Each structure stands twice: as C-alpha cells, then as structure tokens.
Amino acid sequence: MAPVGGVAGSSRSAACCAVLLAAVLFFSAPATTEAYDSLDPNGNITIKWDIISWTPDGYVATVTMFNYQQFRHIPAPGWQLGCSWAKKEVIWSMVGAQATEQGDCSKFKSAPPHCCKRDPTIVDLLPGTPFNQQIANCCKAGVIKTFNQDPGNAASSFQISVGLAGTTNKAVKMPKNFTLRAPGPGYTCGRALVGRPTKYYSDGRRVTQALMSWNVTCTYSQFLAQKTPTCCVSLSSFYNDTIVNCPTCSCGCQNNITRPGSCVNDNSPYLQSAINGPGKLTGQPLVQCTSHMCPIRIHWHVKLNYKDYWRVKVTITNFNYRMNYTDWNMVAQHPNFDNITKLFSFNYKPLTPYGGRINDTAMFWGMKFYNDLLNQAGPLGNAQSELLMRKDSETFTFQKGWAFPRRVYFNGDNCVMPSPDDYPWLPSASPLTKQPWTLPLLVFWTVLSTLLAYYV
C-alpha cells in the first residue's frame, strides 16, 4: 500500500504544482484588455482605404480616419499615419496630406514620385493650404475632434495616388503594419481587412461606390501612451475643513537630482528658458513643482446643500507650462448624474456605456470661444463650473463619500483618485454626549445655514 500512497502523493504534489504554475502564469501574463475601456467599450479609430480609380500603374485612393471614440480626440500637433507597402509601391502624389520624407527616388529619371520609402509616414496639411491641394475633411493640422463635441470635425481625409501597385483587384495588395501616432504612442492598429465597398452619394439621386475598400481598426491604451498618469483628482466639502489633495507622486515625484528640470516653480528665473527648451518640440510636459506632479488637476468641491438640491463646484487646473489644452473634455461617473438640473459655463452630455440602463456617466467640455481653451500653467490656467443636482430621497446621502465621483477622465485618460479612506467625512456627533451645552449652538447654526441656502 505504501507505493500506491506514494504514487498518489506524488500525483497530488504534481497537480498542486501545476495549479500553482498556472496561477503564476495567469497573474504574471500581460493583460489582454488594456485597450478596453468600460466607459467607451466600442471606441476606436477606423481607417477606410477606398480605391476610387485605376491608373496606368496603380490606383487613386481616398483614405479617411473616423474617430468613433466618445471622449478621446487627437489634439495638436495631430496624427501621424504609418504603414509598410506589400510590394514596391511608391506614392506619385497626394492631396490633403503629405509624406514626411521623400526617400530614395534616384531610379526615376524624369519627375520623381512624392515618396519612395517602403514605410512612409503621412501627416495632415495645415489650415490655409491652397484649395487645389485640399479635399473634404483635410488640412486641420491632424486634429480630430470627438463626435460628441464636434461631429463635423470627427474625421480626417486625404487622397493618395499609388504607383507600381497593380491595376486590378487581384493584383493590388493591402499595405501592412499600420501605425497611428496621435501625436504620441498609445494606438495599436490591426491588419487591413477587405470590407464592403464604400458608397458615395453625390446629388441625392446617383450613388457611386469604391472599386475596393479596406478597413483598419486602431484602439487606444493609456498604458502604451505614457508610463505615468496625466491627471489627478482632489476633493473638498462644505461640511469638513479637510482638503483631500491629489495623492503624493500621482504622476511622478520631484527628483531634480536624478532628473534635473523635471519641474519648475513660478518664481524660478529659468522658467522661460525651460518652457522653450528641447522638450517643447516633442510635446514633453513641463509641470509646475507640486506634490502630485500632474499636468492636470481636477478639484471636486461639494459646495451647498439645499432642501431638494445640492451643488458641486468643479475646477480644472493646468500645471503644464508647455501645453494649452484646446477643446478639452472631462468625463466623470457619479450615481446622481441622472438628476443634473443645471450646469454653469460647461457643455454637458450624458453617456450611457451600459446600453442605456444606467445614466451615471457624464461628459463635460468648454463653451466655444469662452473656456474651450485651457491655458498653460499660470493665472489663467484653469476652468470652473458648478453643477446643480436634484436629490433622490432613496439614494442621496453625504455619508461614506457618496457625494464624490467614482471615476474621472481628462481628455480620455483615467485620473488618479484619492484613497476612499481619505475622503472628507461628516462631523462626528460623539462630542455632543460629552459637552451637552454645544447642542443648542450646533442646532442654531444648522437651522440658520439651511434657511439661508433655501431662501437665498
């Protein structure tokens, strides 16, 4: 019986080791859902490559990038689209965009192509481009807005004439290895897939279609975009004097010894030279020296308590000396957003990421020509608004941090929240049992503040 028991024991040990190894591999394996965002589950940028005509040695195509993300846009200095040719294709000409490098075109004796590189990088043209070099949805410096904020500018297009590519559907090959920088890393693009030919409606009575269409889907991952977060959240309330600051080192730590110039103070004599330093060309942020070291801080303040309503003040502060945030947006999640009554100085749109069953997510952005531009760090580097929300008697409470947001995004990036243990708490009633004489005074001030809030 001993050998049998030994074999059984060995089997159990082997099974335990196998389970342990599987667990280690499971928890150490890279996450496969890094690009998935539960607040925007279908968000992506889709690239449509439509062949609209054949040429003697290739084709002419219209390429359009559609931003299907609800709250993430492509800011200045804009997108850069890269790919690799499947054969020995060249770009004869472009309208609405240009390749950043021409490459080696020495084998062409007469007029050289626009680009001969095997892996071209394409960028949008700037506003003010001559009309004969434009097509629809081009020439916006690569900036693509979100559909919620500006549906008329949620796409970007250009036209490309490709040579040495074949002149039939069977001969032509799809480009490979698509990359999208917007303007830095963060997007991962899949391979090009043949789709239904795109249809074009000219005058409402005639419909034409592309000879061939390819689709490329690019998804965003904040983990790929930057190593550290880009924003944080601080909290305060009228019922507690405590101000909960952003967690220390939310977006990095001050370390001018190993990383000189990582931050700078307002009164620094080197401020202007640091702003215009080498990092300006690459878009590298230069942040004001703070405990959190974040370019953006969002402060949520529970301001007033009325009989049937309550009021919140939101302040967005820019600590980045090198960046003006144009057409910024903020997304927040709170269970009382289904009862937003009035909003001051921000635009607002509810988001329903759960199929419309729950309305607890809202998108806010600035008003055009008023506060849609969040200036760089300094006296004007902030935007403010207030939210008035109706109370739901079944759910409303100031206890256990209910009045504060669950998640906050800025320009599509998830912000660092304080620990729930640090949230402002309601004053304890226990001292009343030790000092009964304070009860009438507390009742008086409570009644007075409620009456003022109700009638003022």
The assigned CATH architecture of the largest domain is: Sandwich
Task: Report the end-to-end length measured between terminal Cα atoms.
Answer: 88 Å
Kindly report the CATH topology of the largest domain.
Immunoglobulin-like
Rounded mean pLDDT score: 85
**What's the β-strand tally?**
28
Which CATH class of the largest domain applies here?
A: Mainly Beta
Helix content: 10-25%
Into how many domains do the coordinates divide?
3
Cα shape: globular
Q: How many helix segments?
A: 6
SSE class: alpha+beta
- Note the main sheet: 7 strands, antiparallel
Strand residue content: 25-35%
**Rg:** 28 Å
Low-pLDDT stretches are 1-34, 430-439
Short description:
The protein is an alpha+beta fold.
Structural write-up:
It comes from Triticum aestivum (Wheat). Residues 1-35 form the signal peptide. This is COBRA-like protein. Residues 230-424 form the COBRA C-terminal domain. Belongs to the COBRA family. The chain is α+β, with helices and mostly antiparallel strands and 456 residues long. The chain has 3 domains: 45-224, Immunoglobulin-like (Sandwich); 228-425, Immunoglobulin-like (Sandwich), CATH 2.60.40.290; 430-456. Helices cover 14% and strands 33% of the residues. It is built from 6 helices and 28 strands. The protein has helices at residues 2-28, 222-225, 271-275, 279-282, 431-434, 438-455, and strands spanning 45-55, 58-67, 80-84, 90-95, 97-99, 121-124, 155-163, 176-181, 187-189, 193-195, 199-201, 207-209, 212-220, 231-237, 240-244, 263-264, 287-288, 296-305, 309-318, 325-326, 329-333, 340-344, 346-351, 361-366, 373-374, 382-390, 407-410, 413-414. Strands 1, 2, 4, 7, 9, 10 and 13 form a 7-stranded antiparallel sheet that branches. Strands 15-14-18-19-26-22 form a 6-stranded mixed sheet, with no helix packed on it. Strand 18 (296-305) and strand 19 (309-318) form a beta hairpin. The N and C termini lie far apart (88 Å).
